[in-house]
Amino acid sequence: MTELIIFAAAVIMILLAAYLFMIFPCIKKPNNSKIFTSSLYAHRGLHNKNEGIPENTMAAFKRAVDQGYGIELDVHLTKDGKTVITHDDSLKRMCGADIKVSKSNYEDFKDVKILETQETTPLFSDFLAMVDGKVPLLVELKTDDNNSEALCKAVFCELDLYSGPYCVESFDPRVLGWLKKHRPNVYRGQLSCYMSTKSSHGYLAILLRGLMANFISRPHFVAYSYKDSKKSVGFKLTRLLGADIFYWTLRNENDAISAKKDGGALIFEGFDAHKLQDSENSL
């Protein structure tokens, strides 16, 4: 009986050690990390559909810059190697055109209007030229068709020439693994939420929602869905182990206040987040 107990205890210890190895973050942060953890990020720019300013457009980004917000944005790679800013892998939701970005050349859709406005899908290079270091950037890399390496190389052809503050995040741990190897001083973050096994990720969702792919990415920060964060053991442990925390997406002031008190950097939309800073300064 004693030998059985010792064996069981040893197995539990090995499994626990393996689990901690899988979720452990990178605790040595780049020197500029505080720039990013102290910023408020306008989700896909400071957009407002009712005012004719769609998400992930130059109008939304200019508005965020004018109001002093950091910017969260999504970058895809086209068939001809262009880096473009859009959230979905298809333009159907935003443009009404069933065009898959990774299967199309930029010329195929560069003039297609977004939500019946005059806005079109921006090139990442044009966006960087417009921001010009004025506000911090939270750049999400969106992989498709196993193009993680090609996407990373294309994005950093442009970011390597950019002098403003930026950090990079992705749901795909292969992106962060590439960063860890090739751009170790870039502040990198693992995106996640309590995703279902019925999602496109299948049973890989169990690993991703529990941050058990951190052994690939060793992220400096974790960007987790605020509404899901309280039910994720992996998120709580990764935070305890030293990861910085970003919360997405805060859509009302009450949730944002709670998230800010919890110590996370905020990705927001739909309200004036400057009120959070004003209330904090008045304390």
Question: How would you explain this protein's 3D organization?
Answer:
This protein is α/β, with parallel strands linked by helices and 283 residues long. It has helices at residues 2-23, 33-37, 58-66, 92-95, 124-131, 148-159, 173-182, 204-209, 214-217, 226-229, 233-240, 253-261, 274-281; strands spanning 40-43, 70-77, 83-85, 137-141, 166-170, 188-192, 221-225, 244-250, 265-268. The protein has an eight-stranded parallel barrel, surrounded by five helices. Helix 12 (253-261) links the parallel strand 8 (244-250) and strand 9. It starts with a helix and ends with a helix. The model has no long low-confidence stretch (mean pLDDT 94).
Which ranges are low-confidence, i.e. pLDDT below 50, for 5 or more consecutive residues? none
* Average pLDDT, all residues: 94
The total beta strand count reads 9
Q: What proportion of the residues is helical, as a percent range?
A: 25-40%
Largest sheet geometry:
8 strands, parallel, barrel
Distance between the termini: 60 Å
Shape: globular
Question: What class do helices, strands and sheet pairing give?
Answer: alpha/beta
Strand content: 15-25%
Q: Give the H and E element order.
A: HHEHEEHHEHEHEHHEHHEHEH
Q: For the CA atoms, what is the radius of gyration?
A: 20 Å
Task: Give the helix tally.
Answer: 13
In what order do the strands lie side by side in the largest sheet?
1-2-4-5-6-7-8-9
Main traits of this protein?
globular; 9 strands; alpha/beta
Concise overview:
By secondary structure, this protein is of the alpha/beta class. Helix content is 39%, strand content 16%.
